[in-house]
Amino acid sequence: NFSLSKEVDNIKNEFLLKEVEKKNEIKNIYIYSFLSTLVFLMGLTFFIYRYGKQNKKTANQAKLHNLELQNTLQELELSNKNYVMRVMAHDLRSPLAGISGIANILITDNQMQIPERKEMVKLIQTSCTNSLEMIDELMQTSTSIGTQKLNLQLIDIVALLKDCIKLLQFKALEKQQTLNFRTTLIHHTIQGNNEKLWRLFSNLIVNAIKFSNVNKPINIYLEQVDENMLIKIQDQGIGIPKKNKEKVFEMFTAAKRKGTNGEQTYGLGLHICKQITLAHKGKIWFESVEGVGTTFFVLLPIENV
User: Fold this and answer.
1) Are 198 and 276 in contact (CB under 8 A)?
2) Contact 192/300 with Cβ under 8 angstroms?
3) Where are the domains of the chain?
4) CATH fold of 143-301
């Protein structure tokens, strides 16, 4: 009986021991689960904190980029307006100078005959019409000249060049220069925009006057080459240095220089000339020797399809 009682006690103790071990295992599981959950929650909290901080940083960066973009757009808009204003100011100088010169002659020359006076008044009228058309165009659009759709019409290019030369002859006389028009053509019609071509030729002739010395001739040539018209404006001026040759057609070019009489330049004239030529599907280039002179070439298609 004693032996049986002892065996029962052993079994009972063994059962109690296993019960304690089982409780400890459950307790450890709870502890591990709690610690795992705690670590997970701490990690999640840290992640949320980092994400929120990064998100706030990203939001601030986005706000900053948006502000910079708005400033850039405003600067571009202002720059575009300034460009339009400079183009207008630049291209209005030549016709206004021509009108001023003609008006001065009409006032001071009492010996002038009526037909001559009528011709000069007609030049003033033509110059004013072209200037008003240019102002209307610039007020209606702020796009680049080269991207505007051309209002094409039939133009007598011989008459157009003669009008430009007559008007600018008075500007050339200020430096005792002569403008010589050389062509075998009496009349020749091409498709183009009258106002823009007038600006193109006026700018090139004004440049020749500006960069030529006193008493030097300036020759303007016109000839037909296959299905194109070739215009050449040749001066005996100061020429273009080699270092500037690749920059002369750039807008607000750094290659700009003062004229031989200290005339101011704005770095726009040749850029405008190139834009107008390209808009007419033409080509413009030059040959120049520093100290000898420059010749500008403009090749325009007769039919601008």
Assistant:
1) no
2) yes
3) 143-301
4) Heat Shock Protein 90 (3.30.565)
The token pair that represents 72 in the structure block: 């850039």
DSSP state of 265: -
Which amino acid makes up residue 19? E
Residue with tokens 């420059």: 294
The region that residue 291 occupies, defined by phi over 0 for left and psi between -120 and 50 for alpha, beta otherwise, is left
User: What is the rounded CA–CA span in Å between residue 152 and residue 195?
Assistant: 10
Nearest CA among 261, 279, 257 for reference residue 269: 257
At residue 89, what is the residue type?
A
What is the residue whose two structure tokens read 């202002």? 78
Q: What angle do CA 51, 53, 55 make, to 5 degrees?
A: 65
Tell me whether residue 146 is exposed, middle or buried, using C-beta atoms within 10 angstroms of its C-beta: 0 to 12, 13 to 18, 19 or more.
middle
Q: By the 8 A CB rule, do 138 and 87 touch?
A: yes
Q: How far is CA 2 from CA 10, 11, 13, 113, 145, in A?
A: 12, 14, 16, 161, 121
Per-run averaged pLDDT (10 residues), the chain, 305 residues: 63 72 73 73 73 64 63 57 59 66 69 72 70 58 54 93 88 91 95 91 92 95 96 95 87 70 74 90 95 96 81
- Whole-angstrom distance, CA of residue 189 vs CA of residue 197: 13
Exposure of 302 in the CB half-sphere (CA atoms within 13 A): 12
Residue 47 in tokens: 């992640």
Q: How far apart are CA 151 and CA 304, in angstroms?
A: 11
What tokens does 303 get? Answer: 């039919």
Q: Specify the pTM.
A: 0.61
Q: Are 155 and 191 in contact (CB under 8 A)?
A: yes
Helices (H), 141-193: 157-173
Question: Which residue matches tokens 């405003």?
Answer: 74
